[in-house]
User: What shape does this take?
Amino acid sequence: MSGPSTYVPETGFTRWLDQRLPILRFSHDTMLTFPTPRNLNFWYAFGAILTFCLGVQIVTGIVLAMHFDPSATVGAVPGSSAAFDSVESIMRDVNYGWLLRYVHANGASMFFLAVYVHMFRGLYYGSYKAPREILWILGVIIYLLMVMTAFMGYVLPWGQMSFWAATVITNLFSSLDQVTGGLKVGSHIATWLWGDFAVGGPTLNRFFSLHYLLPFIIAAVVGLHIWALHVPGNNNPLGIDVKGPQDTVPFHPYYTAKDAFYVGLFAILFAVLVFFAPDFVGNPDNYIPANPLVTPADIVPEWYLLPFYAMLRSIPQKLIGVLVLGGAIVTLAFIPWLDTSKVRSNRFRPLMKQFFWLFVLDCLVLGYCGSQGVDAAVVGIPLVWVARLGTAYYYGFFWVLMPLIGLIETPRPLPDSIAKSVLGAAHAPAE
Assistant: This one.
């Protein structure tokens, strides 16, 4: 952790423990006295909100797993499966099962909402720039693990959308056969995921196992993410380095109180969704038992994956579509080296700021395109063409605009220090 430790054991027990397992020293240095820039705004509270979401998902997921039956065998109701029936049993027969399921299902949406705000904040304030490249890459890994975990969780209720989403996504791997020739690597991957020669009971078992395991891997990577944050310290809205103690305040009580307040507000919004609109983000087709003989009119993922789904669907060639989809996420890992500007925060980058907000709008448009039918159009313009333009801007923003603007842009002057920016030059302590 950055800086020398200031922890002083005060009792015989804490001195004994500190010499053998300095966990109290670690907690003191990372959560109490850690020097944090004094100008962090509301958008920096989403790190604590994400930790809250991860905890909620793990706790509710463990309890739900105690009652869930990951089996695709025929259920008690004709046409249903044991997995589908067990979800209905959780809703009707388990004490507060409805609450656990709604919190877990809507918790995934709230988790992604918070992570998108967290990522866009990092992009706007340049939190990926040196010396925080590893911190950013670990964040991209966490996001990828979240996508995998959410997709497998979407399959578990074994409704119509669960079954066909699993069929569509796992079949994407077969496109790799076009580049691996007779080895048929893609088909082997798909068969391994299915556990059979098609999506069925073994697939459900495997996805349940991985869906249970991955959150704990996410928690471990989050630990590394926080560790990587504490080595260089926090970035801040100005994007300038800390010049001395006058630029920082202890993490506790200043940011523990601030984060707790915003986590409370977020929990209220979460509760409103759970108690008043629990199916707002769900798909009604998933309340129909899975039927391999009936294909839904439109197969769509959850809202948080719609921009990537729009990219995939806009490309007519299957392999290229898969590469575009995967490349959109892999691109995020290269951002620290694609941005050539020496200024971190977009507050001082007048040209880049405009293209950044266009990028945010582009992601929203892609999400809308992904939510509509494949033949949908707006004022006579097919949305598939809008999605193609949106995909081109997504890649152009990172691989063309970001390197180019950093070379030609003239940024605004940066403040001398965080303290002078916050308190004003007349009130800032002498450096």
Q: What stands out?
A: The CA atoms of residues 141 and 248 lie 29 Å apart. The mean pLDDT is 93.
